[in-house]
Write a structure and sequence with these properties.
heterodimer, A: alpha+beta, eleven-stranded antiparallel β-sheet, disordered C terminus, B: mainly beta, eight-stranded antiparallel β-sheet, 3 helices, 8 strands
Chain lengths: 355, 135
């Protein structure tokens, strides 16, 4: 339940975003759509750009309700709390209701779910032609600064047009939407952004207003994972060794009959069981780390089934007998270590919420 | 004097600016905030080259505003207008202003940091997250 734009494409509804160009819409799917639809996996989602004209429908999915007797719009669902926006235009009334003026005449607040009554999901349909403008193949930032390119020549254009400023290998991104999207998709994994700066004079430790009211941008903990370091092949090999899985059981970057294989493929990684003449149970992963751990999981499961990998109690004895001593830390601890982000994001839970 | 009928005419594709209150910069860039709302401006109507000029041009001096003329940086979102955005004209501050109810951030919108030496694009919205630009 979140405020979002939706689009129906080939009869299927998708979360959508208008753009990047005037006649385009980008469709998103959390699960892989059928291959023939041509969605591309990026950042844990599948996405596809299509023409707005090719949509069956475009609509806003929104949840409205009432907070203290006045209409509100639900911007985000935080579980037991809802991030709501005031729907009237009476600033005085909004303040009386307890909203924060987070921007000029923009009133929002995060409140307990049970404080919102009459929740109803609404669908607001848009005519497709109202969502389009002539394709410009230009960057909105550069367009917002038309004088910059003319005034400063190439250097100014580079500064104001990110399409030329992304120093990533790949095709020419100077114009054309597909290249532009390639540039975005090729962007490095985002570092955790710093949380908002504390407003001077509104210290939650000392200011009762800060303690009394939740901020509208408060998010539940752990909504976004921070960046993880990649699991290098050597680390993976170490894990498998600790799990007593023989090298012959797997192959990386090559296909070996009789082994589980992990190879690069089409913007991601494929993991499969290789026979003499076929790949079986092929799985595709955009994320290298996910591919490695899937492979590790399959191999470990097989090792458990075969009895090679057995639980080891803390005293190092298995099933009451003197089992094989395992290195310290234990394999399980090693796995946890590598799964744990090296650098935790400055999550909203700690840095932002003041209530 | 500006004519109301002229104010209502935002041609689709018109580049727009919105200043981001300092406390919302983090929520935007971390993906917590996914809508644009409030007062926005056509790029053609406002000129600024540093935060002090933007403070005046974008009428950032409302009561309880976090913005100050002395700020070393101001973050701005740039995007092209569409008819469905629902721009409501307002005339209170000398230059044409428009108010919008929450709209989803368009794919391709840019987040710019305006400093003493001008603006620099710092992130690009890909529809789900802001992708940081390399310096």
């Amino acid at each position: 339940m979140r405020y979002r734009l939706m689009a129906t494409y080939l009869g299927v509804p998708y979360h959508a975003g208008l753009g990047p160009d005037g006649n385009e819409v980008t469709l998103f799917s959390p699960a892989p759509p059928p291959d023939e639809l041509g969605f591309a996996a990026t950042d844990g989602h599948w996405r596809k750009q299509v023409s707005v004209a090719d949509l069956n429908a475009l609509w806003q999915s929104r949840v409205a309700g009432e907070y203290r007797g006045e209409p509100c719009l639900v911007l985000d669902d935080l579980g037991d709390r809802l991030h709501i926006a005031y729907q009237g235009r009476d600033s005085t009334r909004a303040r009386q209701l307890g909203y924060w003026e987070i921007d000029r005449e923009v009133f929002e607040v995060v409140v307990a779910r049970e404080d919102i009554t009459g929740l109803v999901e609404e669908r607001v349909d848009y005519p497709l032609d109202a969502a389009m403008f002539p394709a410009s193949h230009r960057d909105p930032v550069a367009q917002a600064r038309p004088e910059a390119a003319a005034r400063g020549g190439a250097s100014a254009a580079e500064r104001t047009s990110p399409l030329r400023a992304v120093p990533r290998p790949g095709p020419d991104r100077s114009s054309g939407t597909p290249d532009r999207m390639a540039a975005w998709h090729g962007s490095p994994e985002a570092e955790p952004w710093p949380g908002p700066q504390q407003q001077p004079g509104l210290d939650p430790r000392t200011d009762p207003r800060a303690r009394a009211r939740p901020e509208p941008w408060a998010a539940p903990p752990g909504r976004r994972a921070g960046r993880r370091d990649r699991v290098p092949q050597s680390v993976f090999a170490e894990l498998l060794s600790l799990a007593a899985i023989p090298h012959a059981a797997y192959a990386v970057d090559e296909e070996v009959p009789g082994a589980m294989c992990l190879v690069k493929a089409g913007g991601g990684f494929e993991v499969f069981s290789r026979t003499d003449d076929a790949r079986l149970d092929v799985r595709f992963f955009e994320d290298e780390e996910a591919a490695y751990f899937y492979l590790f999981g399959v191999l470990a499961a097989e090792a458990v089934r075969s009895g090679r990998l057995r639980p080891v109690p803390l005293n190092g004895h298995a099933n009451g007998s003197h089992g094989r001593r395992v290195p310290s830390p234990s394999p399980a601890e090693n796995v946890s270590k590598y799964l744990r982000p090296e650098k935790l994001p400055k999550s909203a839970a700690g840095a932002v919420i003041v209530n | 004097m500006t004519q109301p009928e002229r104010l209502t005419a935002i041609a689709p594709g018109t580049p727009m600016w919105k200043a981001v209150p300092p406390r919302l910069v983090g929520p935007y860039l971390s993906g917590q905030r996914t809508v644009l709302a409030g007062y926005v401006y056509r790029a053609q109507d406002v000129r600024f080259h540093n935060p002090a000029e933007a403070y005046l041009a974008l009428s950032l001096d409302w009561e309880d505003s976090e913005f100050t003329p002395q700020m070393s940086e101001i973050y701005l979102v740039a995007w092209p207008a569409r008819a469905i955005d629902g721009y409501v004209p307002a005339t209170g501050h000398g230059v044409p202003e428009f108010y919008i109810e929450p709209i989803a951030i368009p794919v391709g919108a840019g987040m710019c940091r305006l400093g003493p030496d001008g603006e620099q694009l710092v992130a690009r919205y890909d529809g789900l997250a802001w992708q940081r630009m390399e310096p």
